[in-house]
Sequence to fold (256 residues):
Amino acid sequence: MQFYKYQGTGNDFVIIDDRNRQFPTKDADLIQKICDRRFGVGADGLILLQDHANYDFEMVYFNADGKTSSMCGNGGRCIVAFAAHLDLIDNTCRFLAIDGPHEAKRRDDGWVELKMTDVEAIEAGEDYFLLDTGSPHYVIFVEDLDDINVVENGQAIRYSRRFREEGVNVNFVEPQPKALLVATYERGVEAETLSCGTGVTAAALAYQLRNASDRTEVPIQAKGGQLSIRFSAQDDGSFRDIWLCGPTRQVFKGEW
Fold:
């Protein structure tokens, strides 16, 4: 089985051309082995590119634990780059993911802009924001990200009574003059990742809601690189026309 390894700001994925529908999607053990960083290829998740009658392709995503998951933003950007590599698309496309249809734009240098789902409801607590940007995210603003143990503090929230069963991704955000610094603990991976597309999107929207500014774009500095979130904030607190923008790169290809 041929596979490709892609990364988007350090968020890395094994991507497989599964248009023949031969990948054993119910074999969670196999997916875990492939994603294992010591005994397999190593990845935050595995993505299948499949045919779809009404779209350019369909994205099927699995977390590193072998389970199907909610939307992965950086994975969505990487599969767009992969579809271009297969000559399935040109510079624009429409594809289907678990949270519905997505539009995307790409450049030949690997830059991909992905339109995310609209965000309707945001829960604003005393010291947190909870919202769904294709995946559920818990956002906390901190004064110094370097002082935060992302795994320890992320696990405490992810495995708390409220979120223990379904899980939640946890984002720690430090506002800086030029960008938001964001670190994310991801459920399913059960570790900190160098970047999380839906997570940085959640961070940008929570920041906008928290500061009530007239900004329409927020630059992001994840540990794996720089991203940008564009959006249209609505008077009712919802968000439309949300775009996750950043680089992608094919790292290598191989055979399993």
